[in-house]
Design brief:
Layout lengths: L1 H25 L34 H18 L6 H4 L5 H6 L30 H4 L2 H4 L27 H6 L17 H9 L11 H6 L2 H8 L2 H4 L4 H5 L14 H4 L4 H8 L38 H4 L8 H4 L1 H6 L3 H4 L5 H10 L11 H5 L2 E6 L2 E6 L12 H5 L7 H8 L2 H5 L12 H12 L1
Antiparallel strand pairs: 1-2
């Protein structure tokens, strides 16, 4: 009798647990209890949207691989991925695939394994290069004696993106002044192109309709009149009106309204860590990111701020300069950010704010982390701001071509980005160590000749 009772209780408990977890799994809502571990630095913002990566409950490596490529494929293609999948589907590399199956991202990037996750979300030992390149010392005398956990040291090699570290690039840019004191940023032309195409008429408060005047305070109206929106002929209703010709009023316009005019900027934003929770392609609708959810150091009074366009761009005072540095410094609280104002970069930016230098001669946070770039829009070459600050952040050598070399030599850029103390001081001083990548490349060319 006792044995039957135990079995009955066990069965009822099992059924209750199965019912509970089945309900939690299938119904919408918080699924954090199903997480098998914390997600990496790059994915924790969306770790509860399981279907973003696990698109099929019955899929394996191929399903996860498709999910990785869907988000990161274009980026890898753009940087001429050093280890593309087709390199490892070549039968001549079959022996290497048996050692490290590099056909799949999850071989090196396993999620929910925080205890063994290194920078860039890598979960294999730091000397993994040894598995395929153990004879590099005999092929390259310059590499003899180097240890395999230094291959990916700053200024040497990256697994995927080596655009600024390839031998030909190193040789081509081996010479050059450490700093170009007369360097200038690209001048934005996107707004100019818009003005030429649409020929908007600049508006004043007198041009607004009664509905706009009813909703806005005198201060807001004055700010708007001095803004780029008024200059571009955008009225209050242009952002706040709901459906076209309806009388509904949106108190706080969001990405949907901003993207009607700033489409590419919003696309960049929702691909970034600032905005990825608002990406319309996410299966789960999530709240906007806020600093309080982050893993970096943020200022206490900014922890609850909502990350949307208005977090950096004051919508009624739509000016771009405050968004280029003051918005970043207002949230981030790490040493690099807090040392900006006293740094050579920060001093230049202060002169821009004082009107002593044109904007293109200054260096703000966005100058390096959201660089201006040439893009093709409607068949025309325009210069616009890349609104995904993660686009060139890691590995930091990605900034060499898009940012650092606008003002500095390649040699100085490599040395500076390889010096963690110099980064923390926001580049106040000189690099403490010289990276020999360029020297090695020049020596190799000399040997060939």
């Amino acid at each position: 009798m006792m044995k039957k009772t135990i079995w009955l209780v066990w069965g009822l408990l099992s059924l209750a647990l199965a019912s509970y977890y089945g309900y939690q799994l299938l119904m919408p809502g918080d699924k954090s209890e199903f997480l098998i571990g914390d997600a990496s630095h790059g994915h924790f913002q969306i770790e509860l949207d399981c279907e973003s990566c696990h698109t099929s409950p019955f899929g394996g490596q191929e399903v996860l691989q498709d999910a990785c490529v869907n988000c990161h494929g274009a980026e890898l293609e753009a940087v001429n991925d050093s280890h593309p999948k087709n390199k490892f589907t070549d039968p001549r590399n079959a022996d290497r695939v048996e050692i490290l199956d590099a056909r799949y991202c999850v071989t090196c990037h396993v999620e929910h394994q925080e205890e063994r996750t290194h920078e860039m979300g890598v979960t294999v030992p730091e000397d993994f290069c040894f598995r395929c390149h153990q004879d590099i010392g005999s092929d390259r005398p310059s590499h003899e004696g180097l240890t395999f956990d230094t291959c990916a040291s700053a200024g040497c090699h990256n697994y995927h993106d080596n655009l600024a570290l390839y031998e030909a690039f190193l040789v081509k840019h081996a010479e050059g002044a450490e700093t170009d004191l007369m360097a200038t940023m690209l001048e934005r032309t996107f707004a100019t192109e818009y003005q030429e195409k649409h020929k908007p008429e600049s508006l004043t408060i007198a041009d607004l309709n009664p509905a706009d005047l009813k909703q806005a305070s005198a201060d807001v109206l004055q700010h708007w009149q001095d803004s780029g929106h008024a200059e571009a002929g955008v009225t209050c209703s242009g952002c706040h009106q709901g459906e076209q010709n309806s009388e509904s009023w949106i108190a706080q316009p969001g990405l949907a309204q901003c993207s009607e005019c700033h489409t590419s900027e919003v696309q960049d934003f929702v691909a970034s860590r600032h905005g990825m929770r608002l990406n319309p392609d996410m299966a789960m609708k999530m709240s906007p990111m806020s600093p309080g959810m982050g893993r970096l150091e943020f200022k206490p009074d900014a922890l609850s701020s909502v990350q949307g366009c208005a977090a950096c761009h004051q919508p009624h005072q739509y000016q771009t300069q405050p968004a280029m540095a003051e918005a970043c410094v207002g949230c981030h609280d790490d040493e690099h950010t807090n040392n900006f104002a006293q740094s050579p970069h920060g001093q230049l930016w202060q002169k821009v704010k004082e009107g002593a230098l044109p904007e293109e001669r200054g260096v703000a946070c966005s100058t390096c982390h959201m660089p201006r770039e040439h893009v093709q829009i409607n068949g025309k070459d325009v210069v616009r701001v890349q609104h995904n600050p993660n686009h060139n952040l890691r590995p930091n050598e990605k900034m060499i071509r898009s940012s650092c070399m606008n003002c500095h030599s390649l040699a100085f850029s490599i040395d500076a980005l390889a010096d963690p103390d110099l980064i923390r001081s926001n580049f106040s001083g000189k690099p403490a160590k010289h990276i020999e990548s360029i020297d090695m490349a020049l020596s190799r060319v000399k040997e060939k000749n």
